[in-house]
Amino acid sequence: MVRDAPLAVNGGAAVRDRGRSWPSWPVAAPGASSALEAVLRSGSWAISSPYRGELQERRFAKAFAAYTGTRHCVPTDHGSSALVIAMESLGLDYGDPVLVPALTWTASASAVFRAGLVPVLADVDPATGCLAAEAVAAETDIAAVIAVHWACNMADVPAIAKAADGVHVIEDAAQAHGGRWEGRPAGSLGTMGCFSMQHSKVLTCGEGGAIVTDDPERAGLLEELRADSRRYRDSLVEGELPLTESATTLGANFCLDEFGASLLVAQLEILDEQHTVRNANYELLTRLLAPVTGVKLLTRSPSQDKLSLYEVPLVFEGFPEGIDKSWAATALTAELGVRVYTPRPPLARSRLLEPWRKSTLAPLAEQFVKRHADRAYPGADHLAAHAVLLHHSVFLGGEEDMADIAAAAAKVARHLEEGATR
Ligand SMILES: Cc1ncc(COP(=O)(O)O)c(C=O)c1O
């Protein structure tokens, strides 16, 4: 006997009145239009154009280094390029193995291939969604580790670095701008921190990225790796090119343009206000969901003292035969009138990570296949099978929005428990 109203997906009344909208994304900062307009009129649209006064890319680099508590920031055109040149800057040998968590966006691993290395996939802790130090300690021949801060949780980089025993740990902080671990900002805990500023991220200019590091020599090398072997001159002269052909390594062009940089300077101004709203809403949702059975949030480490929500997973306890997470995502979307979606499969089964499809990667692809023949990912499989995701923009609303999410999650969980899904 079903105690509840029928689910919206089955024709029942939805938890949320269709007349009420959700916050949209992206949110343009107050200074965004004038910043873009200024670049348009400046006559300098790229760092490779003749110098015409202060470069927005330099402004953003300075501001983002300060935001992440690091000494240097090298902006890039994408988060994946940031990962590629971070890997290249390590000076590893062709085919060296790099540990990557199995539950992340494909770029965390495809960037490793692009740098001539082999990603080795490791399981994640199903409670947190992140790589755990134990999984790192179990590896014997790893040349570097990519620690991904996933969804809304940060990986324990200090513990991972200890377990990695001298091997470089690169933070993939594409989903974690502004998060803090024991007071230290995401991106500042490893050898380098890589960020994405793609449209869906909390700090965005459409497509963009950045690397932060405390090491000045590495920062110079990263500049060359992302600007066709060129780095900034010591002093910039009006009408002359800002980059000089220093050529200590072979680079490629991964430069962020001046429009993107100016937008990021403006958007950074509102990032912490947005974090405050999202995080207060998340705390409220945590309280509202605490008494609900059958669905929960990810476990949060007490060491993570500031959240940066990218996606918020709602993790269901289980599904009856014939029902899966896609059904739960559809049912929640119908209750809430906002897109609730499913995590992608772990990378070991991802159609987006098939290196054998590119002939130039053949030797690396062969190693990749061999290394993964007998590896298992029960933690990543469990989470990918039981979670559905909400985008961070949903958390830019208010208390009523959180009440709706909690009510919808509870309604769907009760129907699952009662086997009343049709
Ligand atoms: C964890 C992670 N790493 C890397 C990237 C790649 O960033 P981009 O799309 O800017 O290349 C993303 C983007 O979604 C990501 O989520």
UniProtKB/TrEMBL annotation:
PANTHER family: DTDP-4-AMINO-4,6-DIDEOXYGALACTOSE TRANSAMINASE (PTHR30244:SF34), TRANSAMINASE (PTHR30244)
Pfam families: DegT_DnrJ_EryC1 (PF01041)
Lineage: Bacteria, Bacillati, Actinomycetota, Actinomycetes, Glycomycetales
A GO molecular-function descriptor: pyridoxal phosphate binding
GO process terms (BP): polysaccharide biosynthetic process
Signal sequence annotation: none
Keyword Nucleus among record annotations: no
TM regions (residue ranges): none
Protein's name according to its UniProt entry: DegT/DnrJ/EryC1/StrS family aminotransferase
Cofactor: pyridoxal 5'-phosphate
The family this protein is said to belong to: Belongs to the DegT/DnrJ/EryC1 family.
UniProt keyword terms in alphabetical order: Aminotransferase, Pyridoxal phosphate, Transferase
Taxonomic superkingdom: Bacteria
